[in-house]
Amino acid sequence: MEQKDFKPWLYLLPALLFLGFFMVYPLVDVLVYSLEEGYNSASQTFFGVGLYNYSYVLHDPYFLQAVKNTFLLVIITVPVSTGIALLISLGLNAIKPLRNLYQTVFFLPYVTNTLAVGLVFMILFKKTAYSDGLVNLLIRWFGGEGVDFIDGPYWAKIFVLCFYTVWVVMPFKILILTSALTSVKQDYYNAARVDATPRWRIFTRITLPMISPMLFYLVVTGFIGAFKAYSDAVALFGTDLNAAGMNTIVGYVYDMLYGDSGGYPSYAAAAALILFAIVLTITCINLLVSRRHVYYD
Amino acid sequence: MQITLQNLTKVFPKRGKKETGDVIAVNDFTFVIPDGKLIGLLGPSGCGKSTTLNLISGLEKPTRGKIYFGEDDVTGLPPESRGVGLVFQNYALYPHLTVLQNILFPLQNLKGAERPTKEQMIQRAEEAAKLVQIEQLMERRPSELSGGQQQRVAIARALVKLPRVLLLDEPLSNLDARLRLQTREEIRRIQRETGITTIFVTHDQEEAMSISDMIVVMKEGVVHQIGAPQDVYDEPKNLFVAQFLGTPPIHVFDGSVRAGSLYLGGTPVLDVPGVADQEVYAAVRPEGFVLNADGPLCCQLSRVEIMGRDTSVVCSHECCTSGTIRAIIPAENRVDQTLPTVRFSLKPNKVFLFDRSTQERIAVSNA
Amino acid sequence: MDYDRIEKRTRQSAAVRKGIIYFLLTIWALIVLFPFYWMVLTSIKSYGAYNSEYIPQFFTLSPTAQNYRDAFTTVSLGRYFANTLFFTLATTACMLLVTVLSAYAFARLDFKGKNLLFTGFLALMMIPNEQVIITNFATITNWGLRNTFLGLILPSVTSVFYIYLLKENFEQVPDELYKAAKVDGTSDLKFLWKVMIPICRPTIITIAILKIIECWNSYVWPRLITDDEAYFLVSNGIQEIRENGFGRENIPAMMAAVVVISVPLIILFLIFHKKIMEGVSRGGTKG
């Protein structure tokens, strides 16, 4: 009997060790860090305990810039990507030939290295002394004014960041929505057709309520994911995001921790916890809103 | 509304590379469904009866043939323009809408002059609900209803737009035995009250026989017999129809006809005048056996089951292809269970002869 | 009657609708595929040709492999590649070991506090990476594991989500098999190895592939923990190449490196796309 009791723990030991060291302990530790004022990473000493780190971060213009960038990114990309993904999934659901091919192609960005493909986007959008870049060429074609999306005005940089983010998150959303749509029983559509239901009404009264849980799931994960944006920005604008004015909250955390402006784990911890609070708040709001609009079986 | 099916054929192209040949779900179906009748499409699963229903509703397009509603050719018409009411096997009630919203749904699709006002819609929904007796459940959701109640809601939803035809796909298959009996009476009543031409699909012969004005017996896409239930039961055109109808099922014997007599295993058991000498299948309805100590048919007695109203005698005979025989006799006839055998004579009108190769009915003169 | 008209109109509008759908889907397919086309195209243009194109050309008549040679010789792309391969395989192997063992414990073994512990595991799924990375950075630095593979691998091993996924799958294996094995005197470990793993192989392959993708693309942790080029992974490598590599403007060579980095995953995807998509739709998320 005794043997029985300790054997399961033996199986769990590796997982417990890994999780203990690299997830549970850090979780507590980050709080400690964020409250230790004047922490010196070389001597590992600090002056006192308090909320100074939070106040510092909240007054840091780089952080405020990062917050602004992140919020813009979230507000633009979550609705846009979810909306387009819904359209594409509806389209996919309505066709038979080539459907699998399209699905496979649409999923491709999921398996690509964000940093690597980001470079391609960078050269597509960049304007250099040698070339205006392909995107600017197209803009010119349609009679627009060329602009450097990588080193140019703020709105252009935000645009290209959003564009790339949407490109990257799309596969997951299309996949989830397509499978949600196919799981709606054909009988409901047949019943609606026999009753002469207009297409739009089928969509709003049957399809949307039926897939609402998945749609909601995508919005929640979309918000969380977009708040954590970082490597997309690095791919487009390089590692010194503060200089480019394109840093994100997560980027700020990492920069504080390490890198050219690094060595301040306390500030990093405070910023990370602020981010956590923001994400938690938004997720709670999402949950509250969903109570009224999401139908669960 | 009279419905005419003319040479209706539906071929499904083969799916995938492994299957060979196309599947003919419905083959050359011609039938005029008279106005205001209740028609049962009957057959084993995969016989094409559901496909036929889908062809009438417009959810499937026929490969060949025509469909007329009255005088109108609706063959190429999409389902939304046909004005049919369809009740699905699993009801397909919208789970996120209440009963009232479900019933209102078809009305809210109407456009232009046809569109009733809000009050009229609710009034019509309430009338439909009343017809199927669910008026006290209007605010519930489908998941809060029993199977029978869901069925009623589905029928109300199909009826509320006053369809030209009402189609029911296996309407009773998801209900338990007691509800099934009750609901089939209900369907009959609703059909009578509304007078809407109604077609329903079932694999349960008892269900079809009990409430239909006419039944259509199908197998593998081919219509085997059409007629009033009693007529089809009494005069099956072929072995399949004979076997498919009736509980307990008909008993089939390997027999032969010689000199106007039916022989089962060397013994003449029945006169069959006008039939040429040949090997036949002889099918005997369970109620076609008459207990008779001097009868020509001698069977090995296994046991006797008392049902109260009548008695079923379980016995066996070497020529019977279906194993045990279950003869139903009136309860007042007592079987001597001490004997190893039991003897019967046969009622001529409960015995059918079928050709060994074509399985078609062989006519017996002045039977 | 106007039945003919209704019929015709229905057919026409259906055809138009199909046309529009295919058109829009194709546009998105082009948006997805174009960057891939562009990177391959640019990677085979010669340095001189690329820089003399003020207006970018959509194809090239004189493809060259020089950029690929440059990518492997001028910068240490080969090393980044080998590093990533080693990191990916080692991490995935460790992950599988840890995951299989703990999923088995949760699915098949009985012990006190099992449910509580599993709930705790699930709760960990919600912990964002940024929260723990700060301390992990300190931990690994204190252990003197910066710029080592151990430092790269250790914090990347565990994924609670995969434990959850595999546990669910393990639980679907009928109890009778376990009881039969117990009666036959099979040890737990042998049962796990001989019965559970073969039966659940599809799920194990799926989580392995998902982990491989995750490792191959990981950027943040490697960036924090390595500043010695000898330990760079491809993501950091490409960033390094971009900022200090060929000189900023040798874009064709840069694209050659990008192609080299992207190809393994794309091949993996083409082989396993069904498995990957199925695995992701069961609850994976990007990053």
Outline the secondary-structure elements.
The complex is a heterotrimer of chains A (297), B (367) and C (287).
Chain A: H1 2-35, E1 36-37, E2 48-49, H2 52-59, H3 61-94, H4 99-107, H5 114-125, H6 134-141, H7 154-182, H8 186-194, H9 199-227, H10 231-237, H11 241-244, H12 249-257, H13 265-293
Antiparallel strand pairs in A: 1-2
Chain B: E1 3-12, E2 23-33, E3 38-42, H1 49-57, E4 64-69, E5 72-73, E6 84-87, H2 99-108, H3 118-131, H4 147-159, E7 165-169, H5 177-194, E8 197-202, H6 205-211, E9 214-219, E10 222-227, H7 229-234, H8 239-244, E11 251-258, E12 261-264, E13 267-271, E14 278-284, E15 289-291, E16 297-306, E17 310-316, E18 324-330, E19 341-346, E20 351-355, E21 361-362
Chain C: H1 3-43, H2 47-52, H3 66-73, H4 77-108, H5 114-124, H6 129-142, H7 149-153, H8 160-171, H9 175-183, H10 188-199, H11 201-216, H12 220-225, H13 234-245, H14 251-281
Helix pairs in contact in C: 1-14, 3-14, 4-8, 4-11, 4-13, 11-14, 13-14
Structure, explained:
The complex is a heterotrimer of chains A (297), B (367) and C (287). Chain A is mainly α. Chain A is 74% helix and 1% strand. The model of chain A has no long low-confidence stretch (mean pLDDT 87). Chain B has 367 residues and is of the alpha+beta class. Chain B contains eight helices and 21 strands. In chain B, a hairpin with a 3-residue loop joins strand 16 and strand 17. In chain B, helix 2 crosses helix 3. Chain C has 287 residues and is an all-alpha fold. Chain C has two domains: 3-66; 70-281, MetI-like fold (Orthogonal Bundle), CATH 1.10.3720. Chain C contains 14 helices and no strands. In chain C, helix 4 crosses helix 8 (160-171) and helix 13 (234-245) runs antiparallel to helix 14. Chains in contact: A-B, A-C, B-C. Chains A and C meet through helix 1, helix 3, helix 4, helix 5 and helix 7 of A and helix 1, helix 4, helix 5, helix 6 and helix 12 of C.
Properties at a glance:
heterotrimer, A: 297 residues, mainly alpha, MetI-like fold, 74% helix, globular, B: 367 residues, alpha+beta, Rossmann fold, 2 domains, six-stranded mixed beta sheet, six-stranded antiparallel beta sheet, 21 strands, elongated
Task: Please give the CATH class of chain A.
Answer: Mainly Alpha
Order of helices and strands of chain C: HHHHHHHHHHHHHH
Under the CATH scheme, which architecture of the largest domain in chain C would be assigned?
A: Orthogonal Bundle
Overall domain count of chain C: 2
- What is the share of helical residues of chain A? over 70%
Report the count of strand segments of chain A: 2
CATH topology value of chain A? MetI-like fold
- The fraction of residues assigned to DSSP E strands of chain C is under 5%
Secondary-structure-derived class of chain A: mainly alpha
Largest sheet of chain C: none
CATH fold field value of the largest domain in chain C: MetI-like fold
What average pLDDT do the residues of chain C reach?
86
